[in-house]
């Protein structure tokens, strides 16, 4: 369970100080599905990065299962990301020179698995997102939707506690968007992980049971009884 | 994963990799060529010095130069007695080379010095043989006299009318060098620069025997045959061997036992040079200082001193290789390292999102850095392999072309040459003042040079990797991802 208390993140922009997050308090339960929405520059991605241990707050605490990520040493924070967090990015962020299977394997490298185990698990993960026939394909040989599926397989192959997705459908057309959302929602249901997603897309946001809107670093929480 | 990722990245960026590798290759090839040419220059200089010193000699001890005493000209003087008209007259003048001698006991004194492994004395002589004839002129009386009378000194009195016609002198001057060898210690000294290719060398029992070894060129010129005799100042010596120099010119035309040389020159118990071998080649300067301090009135000349007296194109080329070549190599290498570093750093900048993603996935900074450094080192090794290939080809080309370099010994080497080593260094040195030797340049590539090249390749890769790795290690995943969103 995530417990955020007074999370503040300030950036220096020239002589000015900008509050990306201004005292955010938020609790996210295990297995929750949450969407973060808001205008550009409102602090959505910053909040997601705090939750994923990619950045540290200027003030406040971010506890996951009682461990304050803000105070973890760098090495332990890296280990935490390797074991507990799955990321899906808007631009897929696949390594262009590695094929689909090798890209998925990159998430298993920090876990110290043997090469054969890595290959096997990567193949299984790609099968689960419907890309079992595309293991040896390079990102450049796949469509945007297929690339995002590879990214999802990479995020989930290590069985993380939390899946963080930053505009996962932002670079996709409508049909691809629905396809990817179906995959993500299926995985969330099957694996029982905590799924937090940043999106601009209101139609996607409406599908989530809980919506966090963030403006100028401050959040408002909306419970959605009409969630899909 | 490390090697798969590395291989794929290098393949993807093969043009950039080739630029980095080519830069390093150029620097490394230059280092190999300059090193091998320098090595060839050193070998050429060694050959020149060997032709003077012989093998194994680290330094020579000679008598310090003295100003000529008043009334001494230092020039040879020949005297001929009056002989009959047209009869051949000849005179041999045996001179100690440099006109400076040391007592034979100096050899023992030198041998007793700290750091001296072995020493041997030798006497260098220059023989000038002047032979020919005087012809008296004929006095021709004027038309009124009618008679013809012999002119010249002591002619009869009276007032002859006429003039002296004809007459004069015709003399050949034959100059050659003789070296008196200590037959008990033939492992050191000038004769070691030659191999006895016909006959034999001296036996230890021939300390005062009338035997000689001739240089092959001299023997050919004078048509000396093995087993025949050669006359020096009227003394006949049996020719027991013909010696061929390993390179360059021979140290002397004829070699005789030391005692015989001393007798010929009237220099009993005298030597011109002590040839010294040091116990440690790294301590030659110290040994030189010790000898000069403990044995007064001597000049010690080392190979390094002698090398300074070598001039001509060999010296010029050697200086070029040592100075311009060295600095050019260093400049190209530094430039190549910098370019490799900047290109690697620039490549990391272009891969910010990639490395940010890997860090977000839990890759430690060290693993990302290793990946960057690994790619740079492979680039360096490819550059090294290319550089070694190009460098070897360059060195091979130099050896194949074998440009001839001229070494001028002693001349134009400044005061140190004449006052120090060359004039008194031993046989061949006086004669070699102003003498030129042609040496074919080769460019031998040693294992050390190849090791150096490989080391430079790895160093180049590591330096380039350090640039890129430093940048990669400082990337914070959030910043990396934010910068590209």
UniProtKB/TrEMBL annotation, chain A:
Q: Which keywords annotate this record?
A: ATP-binding, Nucleotide-binding, Transport
- List GO molecular-function terms, semicolon-separated: ATP binding; ATP hydrolysis activity; transmembrane transporter activity
* Domain of life, per lineage: Bacteria
Where is each ABC transporter domain found?
A: 2-228
InterPro entries in the cross-refs: AAA+_ATPase, ABC_transporter-like_ATP-bd, ABC_transporter-like_CS, ABC_transpr_LolD-like, MacB-like_ATP-bd, P-loop_NTPase
Q: Name one Pfam family in it.
A: ABC_tran
Among PROSITE patterns, the record links this protein to:
ABC_TRANSPORTER_1, ABC_TRANSPORTER_2
Name the record gives this protein: ABC transporter ATP-binding protein
UniProtKB/TrEMBL annotation, chain B:
Asked whether the UniProt record includes Membrane among its keywords, one would answer yes
Q: By its UniProt entry, which Pfam families does this protein fall under?
A: FtsX, MacB_PCD
Q: Where is this protein localized, as stated in its record?
A: Cell membrane
Gene Ontology cellular-component terms listed: plasma membrane
In this chain, the stretch annotated as Disordered covers 65-90, 137-167
- Which segments show compositional bias classed as Gly residues? 143-167
Q: Which domain of life is it from?
A: Bacteria
Instruction: From the record, give the transmembrane residue ranges.
Output: 327-349, 376-398, 445-467
User: Which molecular function GO terms apply here?
Assistant: transmembrane transporter activity
Q: Which UniProt keywords apply?
A: Cell membrane, Membrane, Transmembrane, Transmembrane helix
State the annotated membrane topology for this chain: Multi-pass membrane protein
**Domain MacB-like periplasmic core: start-end pairs:** 19-293
Q: Does the keyword Transmembrane apply?
A: yes
Q: Where is the composition biased (Basic and acidic residues)?
A: 72-84
Domain ABC3 transporter permease C-terminal: start-end pairs: 329-464
Family recorded in the similarity comment: Belongs to the ABC-4 integral membrane protein family.
> What is this protein called in UniProt?
ABC transporter permease
What organism is listed for this UniProt entry?
A: Streptomyces sp. NBC_00119
